[in-house]
Amino acid sequence: MAPTAASPAASLTVIALNCTLKPSGKPSSTDRLLEQVLVELKGQGVMPEGGVVRVADLDIKPGVTSDEGEGDDWPALRRRILDADILLIGTPIWLGQPSSVCKRVLERMDAFLDETDGQSRMPSFGKVAAVCVVGNEDGAHHVHAELYQALNDVGFTLPAVAGTYWVGEAMQGTDYKDLDETPEAVAATNAMLARHAAHLARLLKGKGYPGAPE
Predict the structure, then answer these.
(1) pLDDT for the residue numbered 10
(2) Distance, CA of 35 to chain centre
(3) Does residue 84 carry a pLDDT above 80?
(4) Given Cys at both, which of 4, 57, 88, 96 links 16, Cβ 3.0 to 4.6 Å?
(5) To which CATH superfamily is domain 12-206 assigned?
């Protein structure tokens, strides 16, 4: 029997956005955590859409539309986000908040609210989102809460255990990228996130959300 769209054999894709403030070529703890989750997703049959996107390399203009004019790199990135089944967004913690780069991405997705189809569905409906957070001090739960609300508000669906994170001891300088081994709790959460995100994405790909009555 041929596999259905929601079966484990159904092909799924993920795009991973690294919202570090650092451009490519500079080591990033966020990169390390994103790559670990991508490995787990690949084990669930989810293929990455290229490598991790270092958003700081792009010229994402300020604004809340899907195209802010000449030189704006958002339209191309937007297409890649909406072509993928899963959006994996990673951010460091800065001043207890998601990075400014991460906030810029969320601000640009605000346009989805006005881009509904004839049945009031945003273009992100049926897409799954998950979050990776790293930092050198407390704040991961707060950052997750901000991202969960924003991503859901612009139409993404979050699975149970939609986020993974690592934070170091306060007032010290060890980064996640400098650890010799991945902490067991982080590895277990990475795997759980991947299982749940892939499962939910397959369900939504097999049968999306109903639209509003016309």
Answers:
(1) 61
(2) 12
(3) yes
(4) 88
(5) Flavodoxin domain (3.40.50.360)
Q: How far is CA 206 from CA 110, 161, 178, 200, 212, in A?
A: 26, 21, 41, 10, 19
Measured between alpha carbons, how far is 90 from 81 in angstroms, rounded to an integer? 14
CB-based contact 47:12 (threshold 8 Å) = yes
**CA 46-6-207 angle, 5° bins:** 120
Residue spans of the domains in the chain: they are 12-206
Amino acid at 164: T
Looking at 3-7, 41-45, 144-148, which range is the least confident one?
3-7
Tokens standing for 71?
């030189």
E strand intervals along 97-179 = 97-98, 128-135, 163-167
- Residue 96 is given by DSSP the state T
Tokens 């609210």: give the residue. Answer: 113
Tokens of 137: 């001090």
Which residues, 6+ apart, have CB-to-CB distance to 72 below 8 Å? 59, 60, 61
pTM of the entire predicted model: 0.93
* pLDDT, mean over the chain: 93
The total of other beta-carbon atoms located within 10 Å of residue 65's CB is 15
Instruction: Band the pLDDT of 65: cuts 50, 70, 90.
Output: very high
**Six-digit token pair at 30?**
């966020």
